């Protein structure tokens, strides 16, 4: 239903543009339309790296400029044809993006913005100060028209046709990427990079892919811009290009390919209505950008969606047919931890903890608040790096490995406060946990449905995560761990906030999982829940293990009692 | 002797950069938001001085309080339009809203003043003093003195007054400050006013010897950003030291090679620092707020 509606709107929009271009547009109007297409293409790439990936790249304008210069230099100086210059205009920005991305993509977002802006400035300086190559501040004139199938694409209708044909192609590719595994993984790590890593997503690699793709789109757009203008000058590397792309993406709607097209057509025509501002037309962009960020953060496409939802009702969330996810071929047989240590400043949060999680066993980890339980889980799941000690996963040394590697090696964890994404459907949120392993998003959703069914909450699949009651949130969170078929499962207070009945159900489920061969570590305060379940219990106090033995003995242990009640340990 | 001469020039430039970076880092600490408009605010302060100069035919130092007050008002406006509506949203929203404000300032200035470089009047006089063989322009001394005074005043307010304690509490932990009865929103507004006034003062100081054009904000925000990164994200003394280092680097390399080379080298150094030592040369002062 909703799909068909979007398709109808898209086709209607395309037809309207076509009719305008063929019947009404003046030569100048066609030129504006062509440039709008060029910017839409550049904005597609920006939607992927920033809209979906959340990495504010201020180099998108620079990649556009590099693409423009490659076509300009090779075309006007060396007489290369379109068939060589166009691919090279995409390739050179990509080759520039990869090493830069490798170096700075793991940095926090403000540093990433700064680094990409720095690169843009360096490129602009080079373009102005290397006149032998770039023509200096005058640039290069006499760039030939694009030649396609032996015919020169003249300015006007043919060029508009070429550009908008490529916009259609690029938009389709971008749309498929955004809806598929890559787009969903990017959105996941944009919203919560820590959770994304614990679900096995490699933050750096995904961002690098997004950055590379953004460079390809920008380079293609730059090449087309030069074929439209027939000259290339340092203007293509100046900040206004970046500003335009940013404004188009945000005003159109973050992360949406349709938003990029809508934003580009609208914003490229906007200055025509503010002619009196002359070169100051960018003031209008600034105002549009500010108003959108403050008043309509989802942009125009978001507004249209909301209006459509008002008129035709909410689009139903897709539901999938359940499919059991396969078990990994050689699951690691348990987790062995030896003498784990971690200090924060002068505080020894974890001080020589050893434990052994066997397949099929449930191990309890207890201790007063601040005794280091959550730090142990953070260390084991790779969110913190241990200062000392060894961790082996199925005999393999994994000490200090990154969270996403540990997750892919068969480890899953839950968080004390359930960290479900905002504004995302339950099925999608659980499917996100399979993105690192499944071949496509549809398979991931089928597997997610299986996990939800198994936890008895299959009917939540069509709902949103927002506003779920605590107990159901915990279920959904658990489904995210379960769906990955982990060999080792670390649970941080999974029973907190549950009623007695819900706790009993959870206990049954955990027993089942253990019988299937999962090694479980259970951090818990509720002894009534934990002790019947766990075979073995460890008690931590100030980072040290003060009890390690059968669950039955823990209540009678004087050291444990002392730790909880605050008495001195009798010598 | 030539090195000493460069040192004098570098310190004067660095004093002005220090004001820019100081304003940037104060807002950063109070809101954990990157104010991308800081460079354009410097430009606005400079052009404000240029516009006010014919109306007040006195030395530039008289313009300083006028610029400070008007820019503080602009800072309040900036906070109301681009920060307060977005304080519950991800930090990148403020980054973008301040980019938008920067675009508006830059292009608004281009419409009002045109693209030509303009110069504001000198603070005291245009003479050059000759001290032990060094040619020291009066303006350079005045820049160092005024910037030093303003930074000192800011430090005094923050360290010694009740207002300063409240501002620091807000910067350290807004939730806790609110719980203790500090009017956090008002403190954030004051911080924006102070940060923007710093930018405006820097604009007035720079607009005499280095001229001002509507587009000069772009390089300045990068330099402020670099100063804060070099000095350790969030560290106030680090930002001042970082600004001085950048200015000395710029003046030194420009004298041997050229200004574009100096700028390019500066950005490449920045990239190297980000890759090798992202916590800055002196360590990061703020950890990410959870």
UniProtKB/TrEMBL annotation, chain A:
How this chain sits in the membrane, per its record, is: Multi-pass membrane protein
Keyword presence, Transmembrane helix? yes
Gene3D superfamilies assigned to the protein according to its UniProt record, in alphabetical order: P-loop containing nucleotide triphosphate hydrolases
* Regions crossing the membrane: 33-55, 62-80, 86-105, 112-130, 157-178, 208-227, 239-268, 280-297
Q: Which InterPro entries match?
A: AAA+_ATPase, ABC_transp_permease, ABC_transporter-like_ATP-bd, LivM-like, P-loop_NTPase
Superkingdom field: Bacteria
Name the CDD domains on file. TM_PBP1_LivM_like
Its keywords, alphabetically, are: ATP-binding, Cell membrane, Membrane, Nucleotide-binding, Transmembrane, Transmembrane helix
Q: Per the database record, which ranges form the ABC transporter domain?
A: 335-567
Species in which this protein is naturally found: Azospirillum melinis
Protein name in the entry: ATP-binding cassette domain-containing protein
Query: What subcellular compartments does it reside in?
Result: Cell membrane
Record-level Gene Ontology MF annotations:
ATP binding
Automatic annotation (TrEMBL), chain B:
Q: Which InterPro entries match?
A: ABC_transp_permease (IPR001851), BCAA_transport_permease (IPR052157)
Where is this chain primarily localised? Answer: membrane
Q: How does it sit in the membrane?
A: Multi-pass membrane protein
Q: Which family does it belong to?
A: Belongs to the binding-protein-dependent transport system permease family. LivHM subfamily.
- Which cell locations does it reside in? Cell membrane
Q: Which residues cross the membrane?
A: 6-28, 40-56, 62-85, 92-113, 180-205, 225-249, 256-276
Q: Which UniProt keywords apply?
A: Amino-acid transport, Cell membrane, Membrane, Transmembrane, Transmembrane helix, Transport
Q: Does the keyword Hydrolase apply?
A: no
Its domain of life reads Bacteria
User: Which N-terminal residues, if any, form the signal peptide?
Assistant: none
Which organism is this entry from?
A: Azospirillum melinis
Q: What is this protein called?
A: Branched-chain amino acid ABC transporter permease
